[in-house]
Amino acid sequence: MAGATYFRILAERVRPPAFNALFLFVTSRCNSLCRTCFYFDKLNSRDDLSFDEIRRLSETLPSFRKLWLSGGEPTLREELGEIIALFARNNGVRNVNLPTNGLAPEKLFRALDTVLAGTGEGVAIDVNFSLDGLANTHDAIRGVPNNFERTLEALRAAESRYGHVRRIRRNVVSVITSENYQELVELGLHLAESANASGHYFEVVRGATPDPGMKRLTRQSLIGLHRRLLPFHRHYARRLFAHLPAGARQIATAYYLGNLRLHFEVQERNFDAPTRWPMRCTAGQTTLVVDHNGGFRACELRGVAGSLREHGMNAARALASPEMRKETAAIGRDGCWCTHSCFIHESGKFSPRVQLFEIPWAWWKQNAERLPEAPAGELDRFRNLELA
Fold first, then answer.
1. H runs (alpha helix) in 92-146
2. pTM of this structure
3. Which of 37, 170, 183, 235 is the most exposed place for a label (fewest CB within 10 A)?
């Protein structure tokens, strides 16, 4: 069984580059005022794509596996569930990444119910609840009073409603900033002890934010924090793969933890200045970013290459356009290596070097590391998690 799992992983991950992921801003509408948002200057516009335009986008895209949703707050898109089901049906999407601030749980649950009713068991949904610190810090970053408690309530309500549904994962995602990095370990411990989440992920703040002070971190502080966060990933990996036979569980856990440690290392090397990744960036070749108004880009952190509306919402035509060819060529020439883990992850899928060497090596390193020095009470709580 372990051998079969290993070769299945290799078959899925060691493959020639092909279109694999769509980043779709389903709406510009938002009910938060996040000081970390790189899309802040486009929010609450009046030019969102219509459902028919999104249908045309789906009809002109090839098959692909991953749908990354964004906005605005995605749950404010009334047809969110129908949009997800559309891409699952037309394009064979197998995994959906759905971020949410948790402020409109009834809209989130309506969308998830629609997806469950309209797609098969092979479509998995990662619902990522945003929590960027403990209560006061999170509310200050997000600009919404009582946001922390409301998001926790939504997370717990999602567990009550979907805890028995394996294909819905209820994760927490925290953005690392200068304002919260000193309390993210405490946040992680609090959630691991009191909230039955499926995972907890940490992303360093990126892009042009409305509050530049959020990015006043040092590389060394980021490295130190990353090492203290790895026990959380080991904790959630045990839960994530507990249903697998022993051999398959070990292989899946190694790839999972190795991937995360590699992401951390790439982010650390690129925090102060662009530094070459261990693979080439495939943004614009294996991925496409579509803004709320149909603007298309190779990467969320680069400029708009063109408008899908000017191409009749024909995605194939946009991907093959001179503008996109020029943009993808510029990515390699510009050396705009970044900390964006979504594109690190997508690019790594098509690199034999990453899959066969970098990820196993990163797994070995994180497995050999000892927990960094920490207060005694914190260490005791970590040890309890390691034994959970």
1. 105-118, 135-142
2. 0.94
3. 183
